[in-house]
Amino acid sequence: MKIIESYILRRSAKMVLIALLPVLAIIWTTQVLSRVNLVTDSGQSMGSFMLLASCIVPMVLPLVLPFATVIGVTQTLTTMNTDSELTVIEASGASRWTIIKPVLILAAAMSVLSFTVDNGIEPKVRVTFRQLIASAYADLLSSVIEEKTFRQIDTGLYIQISQRLAGRTLLGLFISDTRNPNYQLIYYAREGAVDEKGTALIMRDGEVHRKTLTGDVSVVRFDSYSFDLSNFSQSRGQATLQPTDRTLPFLWSPDPSDPRFQKVPGEFRAELHRRLTEWCFPLVYALIGLLAAGDARSQREARIHPMVSALGIAFALRWASFYFSNQVESSAAYIPFMYAVPILAISLTTFMLLRGKRLGKAAKLSTSFAEKVETLQEKLAERATKRL
C-alpha cells in the first residue's frame, strides 16, 4: 500500500471511530439508565449490572456502524478537499483508485465486523441479556418488594403487599393494571403466592374491578385467580427467545416445534434475510461517501454539502431496507426487494465511480427536473384558472 493510501485509510478509520463512539455512548447510557430501576429493585449485584450494561453494545453496533462509516468517509474526503489535498493528488497524476482503494479496504473491514457481530456475537449476547432480565424479575415479587410500599414492576403495572410470610406467601395484595388503554383493572386479595416457576401470581379470596373508558365499573369476586407474570417474570435461566436471539443456522432451518416459530413464522423469515443483507451496508455507504466527496472541487462551486447528500441517500436506503423487511414478515414475495436495495445501490455507485460521475451532477439534474415539473404545474394551473 502506498503512503498516501495508508494516510487516507488512517484518517478515515479515525473519523469513523470519532463518529461511532459518541453515538454508542449515548445509546448505551440511555439503555442502561432505563434498566437501573430493575437492577436496584430486584437486588442484583454490581457484577450483574455491569454484565447487563456490556450486553447493550453488540446489540446496537450493527445499526450504528454503517452511518459511522458514511460520516467518517465523507468527512475525511471533504476535509482533504478543503485542504486542497485531493487537488494535489489529482495534479500529481495519481488515479482515482488511490483514493478509492483505502476507502474500500475500510468499508470491507466494517462489513466483516458487522457480519461477525450480527450473526455471531449479538445472538449470544441477546440470550444472555434476556436471561439476566428474567433472573432479575424472578424473585421480584416473592422476595424483593418491600411490605406496604407501591412498586412499579412494568409500565402501567403497580403492586403493593401488606405482609410477607414464610413459604412465598403474601398477605394483603393490591394490583393496579393500566397497561390496556381501553380499560383499567384493580385487584384486591387477602393472600397470594408466586408459583415455583415464577410465571403466575396465585391470588385467593379477593375481587377484581374493571373500569372502561365510559366510566362503567364491573366487580367480580373470586376464590382463586391466577395473574399472568410470564411476560416479565420468567424462571431463572429461562427466557422467551425472539427471532433476533436465534443463530443464523437456526434461522436457516427453524425447529418446527418452536412455539414462537409456530406463532409468527414470518418474523423468522424476515430476520434471516435481514442478517444476509444488512451486513453489506457499510460498503454501500462508503461508496456513497466516495461518490459525494471523492473528487477535488473548487470551494467556489455552488453545491449541497457532501455530508447532507450522503446522509440523505443513506437514510433513504435504510428506510427502504426496513420497509421491505417488515413486509417480508407478512409475505415472502418481498424477499427479492430486500436484496435489490444493496445490490442496486452498489451497482449504481460503482458504475458512477468508474465513469467519473459526480453526485452533485445527479443532484443538479434532479433539481432541474423538479423545477421543470413545477413550472409545468404552474402553467397548467394558469390555464385552468383562465378557463374557469
Write the layout of secondary structure elements.
Blueprint lengths: L2 H39 L4 H9 L1 H27 L2 H7 L5 H42 L1 H5 L6 E4 L2 E9 L3 E9 L5 E12 L5 E13 L4 E12 L19 H5 L6 H5 L1 H13 L3 H13 L12 H23 L6 H20 L4 H29 L1
Antiparallel strand pairs: 1-2, 2-3, 3-4, 4-5, 5-6
Helix pairs in contact: 1-2, 1-3, 1-5, 3-5, 3-10, 3-11, 5-10, 9-11, 9-12, 10-11, 10-12, 11-12
The CA-CA distance between the termini, in Å, is 71 Å
Q: State the domain count.
A: 3
* Percent of residues in beta strands: 15-25%
Mean pLDDT: 80
The largest sheet has its strands arranged as 1-2-3-4-5-6
Task: Give the strand tally.
Answer: 6
Unreliable runs: 233-238, 361-370
Number of helical runs? 13
Succession of helices and strands: HHHHHHEEEEEEHHHHHHH
Please give the largest β-sheet.
6 strands, antiparallel
Structural class: alpha+beta
Shape: elongated
Helix proportion: 55-70%
Question: What gyration radius follows from the Cα positions, in whole Å?
Answer: 28 Å
Structure description:
It is a single chain. The protein has three domains: 3-137 and 241-357, no CATH class; 144-228; 358-388. It has a six-stranded antiparallel beta sheet. β4 and β5 form a beta hairpin. The chain contains 13 helices and six strands. It is elongated and about 90 Å long. α1 packs antiparallel against α3, α1 (3-41) runs parallel beside α5 and α3 runs antiparallel to α5 (97-138). The protein has helices at 3-41, 46-54, 56-82, 85-91, 97-138, 140-144, 248-252, 259-263, 265-277, 281-293, 306-328, 335-354, 359-387, and strands spanning 151-154, 157-165, 169-177, 183-194, 200-212, 217-228. The protein has 388 residues and is an alpha+beta fold. Helices cover 61% and strands 15% of the residues.
